[in-house]
Design brief:
The protein is an alpha/beta fold and 528 residues long. The chain contains 18 helices and 21 strands. The longest helix has 16 residues. It is globular, with a radius of gyration of 23 Å. The two termini are 41 Å apart.
């Protein structure tokens, strides 16, 4: 049972194969290159790698427009390369999770091509069509300001098709039992190839009813139970990590009252309020978010993250809170995206301030759940705001101060490389930081080691302690008669707080700093 719940005390590292390491010199990262960097990831201490889409795709949306679910895009290598990679990861104690993008396909997928060309094809019902333009076609866009509609007319089909995302990503009719069966088939295929789970993209849209007359979609939560049961049957320790930016009152619908649905979910509620706390030095809304998302089944887990491959979505914050975060971390209009978020990487958002970066990471690694790191953030990589939309934070990994950051030998990389300014590869790269004990990379390695050595965070029950200072977050974890206390001061000035040993669990006179070789002994008045 403990092995099946490995995700409770994991450290997950997210990367895109195409931006990580190019082995064959064609300017695009590949699985052979990724295999060369497995020892780096093992040394960093990660226990699971989450791969962004790598299946065959036109790549108009970084692979989230899949054209073949059962193969590797030739740009990244072969299916054999992928299997060799999973074996290499397993030898190092690293599990592999992959993106499962089944809300929609590419419009170049053979299913959609057959659906649009033949109204009698079975694939016609695998998508969502309307003979007339639905009256609410200008509602529900995922990318407002970029998208103008969720229904597009297809001349070949002589009908309108539904797309929650871009117009080249037609939605699958996930209510169709044949589509659901195909999703299970896809999952089974990649389990056989060696994966330990899936990060399921856009889960609320997958389980929602779709159609020209659907104004308020109903969620088909039982679909999640079917996915879970299939995984339990095929491989007991295989998980689903759900991308579901939903309100706390629906969390249990996704997890299942008895944990019979999703194993993990990203905690968007905590993520957004964490950035508000960092911007305003006010932890009170964050504490509310922590308490609101506390109820969950014993086998379920939150994914805790700072930045991901998308924009920092602030849509769940109040308008005043959102503006506070914008002013602090993305004040210029070109730093913002989709009327709700910030498209920057973590380091430039925090002004490259090392202490603020350490504070943010320390919070992420000690909040209730499993930490999920974005590639390059362990170095403090920056962004390129000249690139469109979310591409600015999807630049190549910076390995050294060699040309193109050591990412490729190709003179013209297909993946952009940051080569100017303070975040250029000449200044921010793994090789330089590996040589300096106090670098961001080595500090991140230490905090990962700390997180893995403190299972109370992943397994225990947490309590938010009232220290009567909104700038300070005090969290206590209890598990198997052990208590661990974490204190974070989000104010720029030192703060003095009062801790009741009966409540805090700090009964002794010695406080040990888990991130450094030091400790604090209380004086006669009990003050540290």
């Amino acid at each position: 049972m403990i092995n099946d719940l490995w995700y409770k005390n994991a450290v997950i590292y997210c990367l895109s194969v195409g931006t990580y390491m190019d082995a064959n010199g064609d300017g695009t990262g590949d699985f052979q290159g990724l295999m060369r960097r497995l020892d780096y990831l093992h040394g960093l201490g990660v226990t699971a790698i989450w791969l962004m889409p790598f299946q065959t795709s036109p790549c108009r949306d970084d692979g989230y427009d899949v054209a073949d679910y059962y193969n590797v895009d030739p740009r990244y290598g072969t299916l054999g390369d992928f299997i060799e990679f999973t074996h290499g990861a397993k030898q190092r104690g690293i599990r592999v999770l992959i993106d499962l993008v089944v809300n929609h396909t590419s419009d170049q997928h053979p299913w959609f091509k057959q659906a649009r060309s033949d109204p009698n094809s079975k694939y016609r019902n695998w998508y969502v069509w309307s003979k007339k333009k639905p009256p609410h076609s200008n509602e529900g866009m995922v990318f407002p300001g970029v998208q103008k509609t969720t229904w597009n007319y297809d001349r070949e089909a002589k009908a309108w098709y539904f797309h929650r995302f871009y117009d080249f990503q037609p939605d699958l009719n996930t209510s169709n039992p044949e589509v659901q069966a195909e999703i299970l088939k896809i999952m089974g295929f990649w389990i056989q190839a060696g994966v330990s789970g899936f990060r399921m993209d856009a889960v609320p849209f997958i389980i929602s009813t779709k159609g020209p007359k659907v104004r308020k979609p109903e969620e088909q939560f039982d679909m999640l139970r079917v996915f879970r049961e299939f995984l339990q049957w095929r491989q007991g320790d295989c998980i689903v990590l759900a991308e579901a930016n939903v309100l706390p009152e629906t969390d249990m619908d996704y997890f299942g009252e008895d944990g019979e649905r999703m194993h993990m979910m990203f905690n968007f509620q905590v993520n957004q309020h964490l950035f508000y706390a960092l911007a305003a030095a006010d932890t009170r809304p964050l504490v509310k978010a922590l308490k609101a998302t506390k109820p969950r089944p014993a086998t379920a887990q939150w994914g805790i993250f700072l930045r991901n491959h998308d924009e920092l979505d602030l849509g769940r914050l109040q308008e005043k809170q959102r503006q506070t975060v914008f002013e602090a971390f993305g004040p210029d209009e070109h730093m913002q995206l989709y009327d709700r978020g910030i498209r920057r990487r973590l380091a430039p958002m925090l002004g490259g301030d090392r202490r603020r970066l350490e504070l943010a990471y320390s919070l992420m690694f000690t909040l209730p759940g499993t930490p999920v790191i974005r590639y390059g953030d362990e170095l403090g990589m920056g962004d390129d705001l000249t690139l469109l939309e979310r591409a600015c934070a999807r630049t190549a990994m910076q390995w050294s101060n060699e040309a193109h950051g050591g990412f490729t030998k190709n003179a013209k990389p297909h993946t952009p490389v940051i080569d100017k300014g303070p975040y250029g590869y000449q200044h921010v790269n793994a090789a330089i930081q590996r040589r300096h004990a106090d670098s961001m990379l080595n500090w991140t390695e230490r905090i990962i080691r700390m997180r893995k050595e403190v299972p109370e965070i992943g397994w225990g029950d947490f309590t938010v302690l009232n220290v009567r200072d909104p700038a300070v977050l005090a969290l206590r974890y209890d598990w198997r008669n052990n208590s661990v206390l974490f204190l974070h001061n989000l104010h720029e000035q030192p703060r003095e707080i009062l801790l009741d040993p009966r409540v805090s669990g700090a009964h002794g006179k010695l406080l040990v700093n888990l991130l450094a070789e030091d400790h604090s002994r209380a004086n006669e008045s009990g003050k540290h």
